[in-house]
Amino acid sequence: MKIGTRIRELRKKKGLTILQLATAINSDVGNISRLERNIQGYTENTLVKIAEALGVSVADLFTENAPELDEIKFIGKVPSGMVQVRGEAFLGVDGAVDMIEAHNGWLKIYSDDVDAYGLKVKGDSMWPRIQSGEYVVVEPNTAVRSGDEVFVRTIEGHNMIKIFSKTRDGDYQFTSINNSHKPITLSPDQIESMHYVSAIVKPIKYIDICEKTGRALF
């Protein structure tokens, strides 16, 4: 089911007219009508507003068989089940990563880290653990422990996806995932950031920021 059709279905279940929904999200009837007929794209901000007006999560807008609205019991904040894709990671020799950062869609996977983000991986230097075209989910607020896979950025601007461990003298050691390269040892003051890699996600879980039209008109 296309997202516009899904929005129309949820709107009717909520008992709202197109005018009422348009007023609730500070849009106009024409925009909502075109969106529901799947002839107009949408922005992330629009989806958030529509979900709030309909009393559902953003993920429900992409789910055909979501529960009936009157059967949902809300306890606290309902997670959206979506992780933003921040950009693309081009894998080079020894786990080095060249980054292109741009909002590039969403992953249908839940994370309890509100700052979690996804990176699309390109290149085969980490095969078979991470294959080209897959996504890694990174959680900046999750504590990193020895043996974890991490996304590391040094103060010199180098990026790596490695396995983290500590040495006896307090330095950080980073091992290549495919074990074909020697470990790299750095002192903590050489690290700008080190974020926990929580998942490797197949491309089927990816949702583009817009529909096939590629347009976001309101």
From TrEMBL:
Q: Does the keyword Transcription regulation apply?
A: yes
**The name this protein goes by in its record:** Helix-turn-helix domain-containing protein
Every copy of the HTH cro/C1-type domain together lies at 7-61
Q: Carries keyword Flavoprotein?
A: no
Q: Which UniProt keywords apply?
A: DNA-binding, Transcription, Transcription regulation
Q: Which InterPro entries match?
A: Cro/C1-type_HTH (IPR001387), Lambda_DNA-bd_dom_sf (IPR010982), LexA-like (IPR039418), LexA/Signal_pep-like_sf (IPR036286), Peptidase_S24_S26A/B/C (IPR015927)
- Pfam families in the record, alphabetically? HTH_3 (PF01381), Peptidase_S24 (PF00717)
**Gene3D superfamilies (alphabetical):** lambda repressor-like DNA-binding domains (1.10.260.40), Umud Fragment, subunit A (2.10.109.10)
